[in-house]
């Protein structure tokens, strides 16, 4: 049973979500201040965090910023409708996805399951056989089984969503991938009009991975089409344990 930390000062909403998510097979622990939320999240033991932006003591964005220094636990931000700046900043700081209030609990569950499906086996599910693959493109190595990324053999810390975006791009190195196809694979849904979630994850990846030796970006934007991970020579794909 996935364990969820819900951080929101709306106690009525927390009570409703605790009941609803409980019926959907989640174990919920709810707190109502940023201070409580940071302490509980830092203690670990949660599979996903639902984090409101507007909180007493510590604002959600600041809490996420501190949390990302300690752990890469998946975080789904809850924002006020129309607060686009909160969504953009949340993604920049390291949120995996966001939802605007008010939202449908059914859609929330779908978003949560999409995130969890990409990070671990949930109750009744199985790990895809391809999860044992190691993909190398130039100086970047991505180990799907360990969910680890290395540049020149040095580890690169990525959020859940960033890892998933990179895995898709590297798996199709040298080919253009449409933004919507990346979103459906990573977020489990198509992009909404004017949504920038995938763009923000790509921006974070570019900063963390750096440019190619010649100064060119290793993830190219193909205008009106999508993104392409530059294939430096031939991409190598191996299976762990294989000779």
Write the layout of secondary structure elements.
Layout: E1 3-7, H1 11-23, E2 27-31, H2 34-43, E3 48-52, H3 60-67, E4 75-80, H4 84-93, E5 97-101, H5 105-119, E6 133-137, E7 140-143, E8 148-151, E9 154-156, H6 160-171, E10 176-178, H7 179-186, H8 197-209, E11 219-222, E12 226-229, E13 236-239
Parallel strand pairs: 1-2, 1-3, 3-4, 4-5
Antiparallel strand pairs: 6-7, 6-13, 7-8, 8-9, 10-12, 11-12
Helix pairs in contact: 2-3, 4-8, 6-7, 6-8
Description:
The radius of gyration is 18 Å and the shape is globular. Mean pLDDT is 86; it is low at 121-130. The chain is of the alpha/beta class and 243 residues long. Helices cover 37% and strands 23% of the residues. The strands form three sheets. A five-stranded parallel β-sheet has the order 2-1-3-4-5, sandwiched between helices. A five-stranded antiparallel β-sheet has the order 9-8-7-6-13, covered by helices on one side. A three-stranded antiparallel β-sheet has the order 10-12-11. The protein has two domains: 3-119, Rossmann fold (3-Layer(aba) Sandwich), CATH 3.40.50.2300; 129-239, Winged helix-like DNA-binding domain superfamily/Winged helix DNA-binding domain (Arc Repressor Mutant, subunit A), CATH 1.10.10. The protein contains eight helices and 13 strands.
